[in-house]
Amino acid sequence: MKITGCQQSRSLQDPNDTPNLEMDASSPTTAYWNDPDATALAVRDGWLYTGDLAYQDEDGYFWFSGRKKEIIIRGGSNISPQEVEEILLQHPAVFQAGVVGTPDPDLGESVIAFVSLRDQRTCSETELIDFARKSLSDHKVPRAVYFLAAIPLGNTGKVSRKLLKEMLQKDACPGVKNEIARRRSLTKAIAPTGTESVGA
Q1: How far is Cα 168 from Cα 159, in angstroms, rounded to an integer?
Q2: What is the model's pLDDT at position 61?
């Protein structure tokens, strides 16, 4: 097993690096059933490209940080949804969090967060954005936060970012697309060139 595409240690990792986890593919069973094209993409030069993002710490342990296909690319920078989710989950009112990217005509993608709150706890969108800004670089801070009764989960019990994206695409959350567009328009009208504002 090895890490490619970045420095071994997270402390040395460039924020634009994509740390890929690769595994020895010397086993004759390492292939996709009846799918040579998928196998050719995944198995290269004797290594299996897992699609997982990970880093190795100074003690040699591997830490998973997400899936490559779920990375949000904003202004040329790679953003891990899991990193943003972990920050939001530190807020005492947040029970679940899911983060996805939505198309942005200027910067590629915008970071959008969905959260569900703990029983008898309240929190506003502005409060969560301000909370995230204390720990995240500006380009990683959610441009919008939407509240759900529960975050959709997959069969493994993990956040289903695929379903969250489908909700955005189908406008299953009332006004999500219109609100994102409205905020973007307002930001362009009032923000100086080259800057980003909360809610952009």
Answers
A1: 15
A2: 76
Rounded alpha-carbon distances, angstroms, from residue 118 to 101, 105, 122: 24, 35, 8
Domains and CATH numbers, the chain: 2-69 (2.30.38.10), 71-190 (3.30.300.30)
pLDDT tens digits, one per residue of 69-99: 678 889 988 898 999 999 999 999 999 999 9
Q: CB–CB of 1/23 below 8 Å?
A: yes
**What's the half-sphere exposure (Cβ side, CA atoms, 13 Å) at 19?**
25
- Mean pLDDT for 170-188 is 53
| Nearest Cα residue to 71 out of 61, 59, 81 | 81
Does residue 179 sit in helix, strand or coil?
helix
Distance CA 16, CA 72 (A): 11
Q: What is the mean pLDDT of the chain?
A: 74
| Single-letter amino acid, residue 167 | M
Q: Alpha helix locations (H) across the chain?
A: 36-42, 81-88, 125-133, 161-169, 176-190
Measured between alpha carbons, how far is 200 from 196 in angstroms, rounded to an integer? 7
